[in-house]
Amino acid sequence: MNARFYAPGNHAPGMLLNLSEEEAQHATRVLRLGVGAAIRIFDGRGQEFDSTIVGVGKNSVQVEVGRLRPAAPEAGVAVTLVQAVLKGDKMDDVIRDAVMLGVAAIQPIVTERTAISLAALNRGDRRERWERVAVSSTKQCGRAVVPAIGTPAPFGRAILAAEDVLNVMCVEPGLAAGGSLVSSLPPRPPRAVQVLVGPEGGWTPEEVARGVTSASLITLGGRTLRADAMALVAITALLTHWREM
Hints:
By secondary structure, the protein is of the alpha/beta class. The chain has helices at residues 21-30, 90-101, 118-123, 126-141, 155-158, 205-212, 227-241, and strands spanning 4-6, 16-18, 38-42, 48-56, 61-69, 78-84, 105-110, 148-149, 153-154, 165-170, 192-197, 216-218.
């Protein structure tokens, strides 16, 4: 399979374009590609093209856009992962896996037990880092759509969804407020779903009580999963339930 590169913008066969410096360096320094190499480019919005490298500079690669090719199909259910920000590099792993599974968007949130504050997140470059992780995972898994990474937001804002969006809140087994298995959800897939996953310390009782008013509470069996594993398991279970996997 030809190497794939992210090239946002409006493209058409016959056009010439320059890869970003980061993508150009990956092409020349990592993959050692030169003039004449056959590659693929995708625009991040669902289109992918067979293309050819026609020029190479110190930090640049020029590409001639070729024919439009079929892109990997997207899930019929638009899944937004609403993930409480995790410690260290764990958030990178969650984003990588969620993109691989086909989510449409990822919304980082800050909860009562999140280890980092909203102000600290907004001061840093976490969102830019997560966007790079999303692009890298999109390249690796064959998708042509790069999921949007939202600006970190407080928990309360994340559960305000449109009427035709199903909210699903993942909770620990044995929680006083209860929780049902994924199999209890409607068999007919919704247009869109928000999957809410808490931090390492779990949701507070107040957050669960607030979630009950606008979300379906689900558990993933009788075991308590790590926060960085919960999203992967939950999204897989939901897409399997709706026959998307």
